[in-house]
Specification:
mainly beta, 5 helices
């Protein structure tokens, strides 16, 4: 296919990547109109790559308690690296990978993989936080003071999900998506069903996207990260079994080019956690949030 759809935030990190790039060959008038209708904004040219970074300020929060061997606290973000490679069908966007099985004017069906973000809440290593990007943008937390080590640290591993994603584009501004993913890293053997709705538009040079979504998370996934065994927290503490449930999320992204490959970018994400997660003795908050604003720079080309 001539065009591949890029992750919105990967595209927004570059002032030049938010719009489709024209090919060297001039299309016919009718086909050109059709492709422009589909590829305005949320797509990049196939057989292309880009590497970029943003400097700024932001935070992302953890719903976990900050004591009892847990890492529940806000972490500061100063640096956002990003990269993507798009071949004809295969693509990599930061830590997300995929292969497009079918694509036409309105539909895109992919086999895809992404890191599950829950694992990063339990990581004290800053490299783990950097890797847990969910396909959107890297996180590089600023140093923070070491806390007193508590006995009975609660440990959970990072996991990687893979499966099928389907996107529907009724026009150039709207996108409906559904993902069905399962644990392919043999960590918890759980599944996640994701439903999403996104709207993207421009106001002058400002490109913005509003999106919302819901994720159904299986009992195996929730219980691995938020369930506890007898005595896992403190001596004789009761067990908790986290059942399946729905998380809701809301997100805003924007990009404003300021000079050639430089742009001002911003992102805010809010996630409302399911009751099954909130009731866990590991969890202190019923939601998580993430925000970042800064200046991005990107280089790239074709191959």
């Amino acid at each position: 296919m001539k065009y591949s759809r890029a992750c919105i935030f990967a595209a927004l990190l570059s002032a030049s990547a938010v719009a489709a790039q024209p090919s060297d060959q001039e299309p016919s008038e009718s086909s050109g109109i059709q492709e422009r209708n589909v590829c305005e904004g949320d797509c990049v040219e196939s057989n292309s790559w880009a590497v970029g970074a943003a400097l700024g300020y932001g935070k992302y929060s953890s719903p976990l308690h900050s004591g009892a061997g847990l890492s529940g606290k806000e972490r500061h973000i100063a640096f956002l690296p990003s990269f993507y490679v798009y071949a004809d069908n295969f693509y990599i966007e930061n830590t997300a990978i995929g292969y497009t099985l079918f694509e036409d004017q309105f539909w895109s069906i992919d086999i895809k993989g992404e890191l599950n973000p829950d694992g990063v809440y339990f990581q004290r290593n800053k490299l783990d936080a950097f890797l847990s990007t969910t396909g959107s943008a890297g996180l590089f937390p600023l140093p923070y003071p070491d806390e007193d080590t508590e006995p009975k640290d609660v440990e959970r591993s990072l996991s990687y999900l893979g499966g099928v994603g389907v996107d529907y584009y009724p026009n150039a501004s709207w996108r409906l998506s559904i993902d069905l993913l399962t644990d392919i890293s043999a960590v918890h053997h759980g599944q996640k069903l994701g439903l999403g709705l996104a709207y993207q538009n421009q106001f002058g040079d400002l490109t913005y996207q509003l999106s919302t979504g819901a994720q159904y998370r299986s009992q195996a996934l929730n219980d691995y990260y938020y369930g506890v065994e007898n005595g896992e927290l403190i001596y004789r503490s009761p067990a908790y079994l986290a059942d399946a449930g729905w998380n809701l999320n809301y997100e805003l992204n924007f990009n404003y080019p300021i000079y050639e490959k430089f742009a001002v970018i911003g992102r805010y994400q809010y996630q409302d956690l399911s009751e099954q997660i909130v009731l866990s003795p590991l969890v202190e908050d019923n939601s998580t949030h993430y925000y970042f604003i800064g200046v991005s720079w990107q280089i790239g080309g074709g191959f």
